Amino acid sequence: MAKPPFKSITENKSTTSIKDSFQALKFVPRFFKEIYQTSPQLFFINITARLINSISPIAILWLGKLIIDEIIHQVSLENKDLTVLWKYVALELGIVIASDLLSRVINLTDSLLGDLYSNRSSEKIIRKSSELSISQLEDPDFYDKLERARSQTVRRVDLMSNILSQAESLISMTTLIAGLIYFAPVLILILILSIIPSFINEAKFSSTRYSLARSWTSERRELDYLRFIGANNQTAREVKLFGLTDFIAERFRELSDRYYHVTKKLAIKQNLLGSIFNILGVLSYYGAYIYIVLKVVAGAITIGELTFLSGSFNRLRSNLQGFFSRLTRISESALYLKDYFDFIDLEIEKSSLIPIPIPEKIQKGFVVKDLHFAYPGSREEVLKGVSFELKAGEKMAFVGQNGAGKTTLIKLFLRFYEPTSGEILLDGININRFDIDEYRQRFGVIFQDFFRYEFTLRENIAVGNIDEIQNDRTIHDAAEKSLANQVIEAMTLGIEQQLGRRFSNGQELSGGQWQKIALARAYMKDADIMILDEPTSALDAQAEYEVFKRFIGLTQGKTSIIISHRFSTVRMADRILVLQNGKVLELGTHEALMENPKLYADLFKLQAAGYQ
User: Fold this and answer.
1) Are 555 and 530 in contact (CB under 8 A)?
2) What element of type H or E holds 97?
3) CATH number of the domain bearing residue 216
4) Taking a C-beta distance cutoff of 8 angstroms, is the pair 170, 162 a contact?
């Protein structure tokens, strides 16, 4: 099999400097504000436990010194009194137990805060996505931003724990440094010199790792997509039927291998340099240890002080390594934090005009004036000067061959996009003057590519007006109007039946059953305007005819737009708009268009001949 084509991929498509990493730390205060708002009580408990626990290392080391010095002192006495010794031991035991309990409190609150923040931030991403326009949602760059914001939840939770641990460690190190300065200041200099090279190395590679992850966002999304289509019940039939397994697997392997080799090269280089710098750190530690031993031999310090100094130096070295290591992880995670806030701060496309109230009842209807539209990033216009009038209470069908602009025109009616030029008026007012949410509430819509939610039947129908999810009367009424009541009756659990195969006890539906459920959504609210965009394509001709016949009867007095390729349905509309290449070719009743030998009459006769 020939290898699938790939776009050119370089190993280093963009770079992020150490400076960029540390500049991203400016987002940390905002980050902690969000964590605090998640649970002020847990946050306070966590901070308090860390503050108390931060002084336990120096306390334990100092008590260890006192215990050893007391033991040596008692050994030299003929009449021994161990009272003070046991007090020191008991105090040290108490501090050790308290430190362990505090550590468990810290871990517990870290975990709880992390889970809560992860949930809240994911919810914010969902809500932010819903605020963005369709044009933003259909932009590939948007999906890269969304992927980076959504996939780094674990890093953000780790960042919280790392920063809090950093503050705790800083207090501990301050107390340890004070002890070392008192006995042997030169040890601090040795310690810093041993740590700095390793820190610079870690900081350099953290920014490089981020650059790699960011520049490969699109490819990682493609890998996720290949995983999905390669092992999914929705695609399994076509994959098996068309023998796509090798194609998908080889495409996945080639792309994943490229990513693996780039990350492998980086990991080897990082670990090699890290090992060298770590060896230097170990040598410096033993150099300091020799210095302390010589001081003891010379009688400059006691055995207890030796224990304190060696323990303090070892603990401080370990803390410093952890401190600098966490600092690089924090700076790296802050870059991902920047991605999250960049997404949350994405500008929402809003009209600069002050919204005006939408008419309580539509009096005249819609007027479309010289409407032009091209999708973002495309120079080719889909609509090219479309003009017509849709009267209040009128049922109009949009007809045309694929790509004529029917669905695009509906997207403009629903304000998913703004026209390139021209306007749509509702009762003489440009629709962009209305509050967009209030305006859309006046529509009942079902699209040809409606989504099959793997929720219960109740929830699937209530999607059309989710505020009425517990209103059985409204749900059953909508189901009856759309013939979805037949689906409910066929289910073991009725309206509470779980749909889809993703979850336990799920029931899969046929295409026609799903479309009846989707139609019920359009009936869920008493909308002024109804739009049906090819909602019955999975039904046979007779079933579709019955559905639309019911639709016409049930929506008397409502303004409606219908798109269908079946002309037995289309002819039921009051008027028919025929689009061709983004322009209005014909507009009139079925009878009038049949008398005019143009596209509509030709398509109708062609389809009618197929049923003979």
Assistant:
1) yes
2) helix 83-131
3) 1.20.1560.10
4) no
Q: Please determine, for residue 11, whether its predicted confidence score (pLDDT) is greater than 50.
A: no
Residue 340 to residue 286: CA distance in whole angstroms: 44
In-domain check, residue 531: no
Tens of pLDDT, residues 199-236: 666 666 666 666 666 666 677 777 777 777 776 656 66
Task: For residues 560 and 563, give the distance between their C-alpha atoms in angstroms, rounded to a whole number.
Answer: 10
Residue ranges making up the domain that contains 88: 19-344
Q: Are residues 322 and 463 part of one domain?
A: no
Backbone angles phi, psi at 441, to 5 degrees: -65, -15
Q: Using one digit for the tens of pLDDT, what is the confidence trace for 162-213? A: 888 878 887 887 777 777 777 677 777 776 666 666 666 666 666 666 666 6
The CATH number of the domain holding residue 462 is 3.40.50.300
Integer Cα distance of 443 and 559 in angstroms: 10
Q: Are 454 and 376 in contact (CB under 8 A)?
A: no
Which of 203, 172, 170 lies closest to 325, judged by CA? Answer: 203
Length of the chain: 612
Q: Match 């991902």 to its residue by tokens.
A: 336
Task: Please report whether residue 420 resides in a domain.
Answer: no
Cα–Cα distance, 114 to 159 (Å, whole number): 10
- Supply the Cα-derived Rg of the chain in whole angstroms: 35
By CB atoms closer than 10 A (0-12, 13-18, 19+), residue 402 is exposed
Give the DSSP letter of residue 499: B
- Residue 10 phi/psi, 5-degree rounding, is -100, 160
Which ranges of 441-570 does DSSP label H, i.e. alpha helix?
457-462, 472-482, 485-490, 511-523, 541-554, 567-570
- Structural domain total, the chain: 2
CB 567 within 8 A of CB 545: no
Measured between alpha carbons, how far is 530 from 396 in angstroms, rounded to an integer?
A: 10
**Helix, coil or strand: residue 3:** coil
- Comparing C-alpha atoms, which of 553, 545, 493 is closest to residue 523? 553
| Proportion of the chain in helix, strand, coil states, percent, rounded to 5 | 65, 10, 25
